[in-house]
Write a structure and sequence with these properties.
It contains 12 helices and no strands. By secondary structure, the protein is mainly alpha-helical.
């Protein structure tokens, strides 16, 4: 009996040492998997930093005050800026946001809070997922067929509507997911103290998931600011200042400027195309930073 007890104690001791031993199979497996995951993270980040580095190197040579104050040059000129394109981008993206953000958030509220789990809600979510994968050029053709042809001319509002269609799926999906993350107990507590469903959504649920909603809006704005294909079918590019008219057929845009200047053979215009790419990336980054700062204390 003493030998059996001693053998049992030795086995237990070996098992404990195996678990505590950092070179055990489990520890080695965790170390290998951590290394693989870290490697894939680095591989994922390499293209991002490579693109950013290349854009900064190529576009940094034209980064000066004139770039933000003067009109874009024409072929043969060596000086100029992209001020009109920046203003045009802000104009058309702002109009698109005014269209897409309210509709997107209201649609997500209906899906998450009032739609239930019926067939209609499932079809809307499926349609939203399909729309998020539609190529932007298809949206441009759609805007051209249903807006430009019916209006009889190109217009800024047609470009803004095309961009808003691209923004809608991102806003709807991120807002819908953000609303579903809010714990159900918060809704019950609000209703328990006498609040209606509408008051609960507007005063409790939406403020709780505001950071996630603004993140989705930021992503949608970033996509709209970088799109060119919808504008090719809805507006005419110009180097002049935007006139502010929604029915104007001409519009300066950063993405359009990059497209027009980069496809030519003029080296100066190509440098301005790289500078426009750098400014466009900077605007997207600035939008993300502002959204983060505005919601850093809004946590539930």
């Amino acid at each position: 009996m003493a030998n059996i007890a001693k053998s049992s104690n030795d086995s237990e001791s070996k098992s404990i040492n195996l678990v505590r031993n950092p070179k055990s199979l489990l520890a080695i497996f965790e170390l290998v998997m951590t290394g693989i995951a870290s490697t894939f993270i680095v591989i994922t980040l390499i293209p991002l930093f490579a693109v950013l580095f290349y854009v900064v190197i190529k576009g940094g040579s034209r980064l000066n005050l004139d770039l933000f104050t003067q009109l874009p040059p024409v072929a043969g000129q060596t000086t100029g800026g992209i001020a009109s394109a920046i203003l045009g981008t802000i104009q058309v993206v702002s109009i698109a946001s005014l269209i897409a953000v309210p509709f997107g958030i209201l649609a997500a509220i209906f899906l998450s809070e009032f739609g239930g789990n019926g067939q209609v809600v499932r079809w809307i979510r499926f349609t939203t997922n399909v729309l998020s994968g539609v190529p932007s050029i298809i949206v441009g053709v759609f805007a051209y067929s249903f807006i430009v042809l019916n209006m009889g001319s190109f217009s800024v509002i047609a470009g803004a509507i095309a961009l808003s269609v691209l923004m809608l799926p991102t806003i709807i999906r991120t807002t819908d997911e953000a609303l579903q993350i809010v714990p159900q107990e918060i809704r019950w507590a609000s209703v328990g103290v006498g609040a209606s469903n509408y008051q609960t959504v507007l005063q409790v649920v939406l403020p709780a998931c505001l950071p996630a909603i603004l993140t989705g809006v930021t992503l949608a704005i970033a996509r709209a600011a970088g799109e060119t294909a919808p504008l090719l079918f809805t507006v005419i590019y110009t180097n002049n200042w935007p006139n502010g008219s929604l029915l104007s057929p001409t519009l300066p845009s950063l993405s359009y400027l990059v497209y027009e200047f980069a496809r030519g053979f003029d080296r100066v215009l190509q440098e301005f195309a790289w500078a426009g790419s750098l400014v466009l990336v900077g605007l997207v980054l600035l939008t993300s930073i502002i959204a983060r700062l505005a919601t850093r204390q809004k946590q539930f």
